[in-house]
Amino acid sequence: MDYPIKQSFDEILFQLTRVGLPAQPISPRKVLFWGERAGEISSYVAGWLAGKGIEVIVLDGANRFDPYMASSFARKALIPPERLLKRIRIARAFTCYQMAIMVGERLNDLLRQERATAQPGNRWVILLDPVTPFMDEDVSEREVRPLFERSLRKIEEMALTGIPFFLFQPPGFSDSKRVYLMRRLFQFSNLIWRISLEDQEPKVVLEKGLSFNIIEN
């Protein structure tokens, strides 16, 4: 059963980030978007956040970040693209080991650099394709699961200190022996939005959040 949200994607981003809206005492800190064209949409979201004056860190697990898509928001908002892109820091991982190090160590370094310029609550982390590096069948199962869990624990620690996360994951792992990683990501996230294309425009459907439960397909 779907729960369609009668709002535009930009309106949903306003509500999730509370940009221009009254502050909430409690807000979700781990928001997962999964589905079609997740890489492109995450790039747009990075541009959207940067266009609102938010400092953005993108951890890219599959080399999907598209700076041209990010700068498309600059053109829409009449902001110089170079000014917008300066607010986006990108770190890429190509293996599960690199992803674990990036989340466990590199992200803290990037956040420390941002603290010098960003206002409190004015930083977001986008984690793009967090599951993909852990699907490498050349890495043994006994290594993959602990690395993945360690990364999630680190994200949880940072989220509890007030760092908000957007996680973007494309589909395509339903026939993999490691589909449990996707299930674990669903369990881990506070909110889950499924992305689908409707007349080439993204449609997002809330699958988990507040009183909602994960939708099992």
Please estimate the helix content: 40-55%
The appropriate CATH architecture is 3-Layer(aba) Sandwich
The CATH topology is Rossmann fold
CATH class: Alpha Beta
Poorly predicted sequence stretches spanning 5 or more consecutive residues:
1-6, 211-217
Strand arrangement across the biggest beta sheet: 3-2-4-5-1-6-7
- SSE string, helices as H and strands as E: HEHEHHEHEHEHEE
Average of per-residue pLDDT values: 83
Distance between the termini: 9 Å
Number of domains: 1
Record field, number of beta strands: 7
How many strands, what sense, and barrel or not for the largest sheet? 7 strands, mixed
Q: Into which percentage range does the β-strand content fall?
A: 15-25%
* Helix/strand class: alpha/beta
Number of helices: 7
Radius of gyration: 17 Å
**How would you name the CATH homologous superfamily?**
P-loop containing nucleotide triphosphate hydrolases
Backbone shape: globular
Oligomeric status of the shown chains? single chain
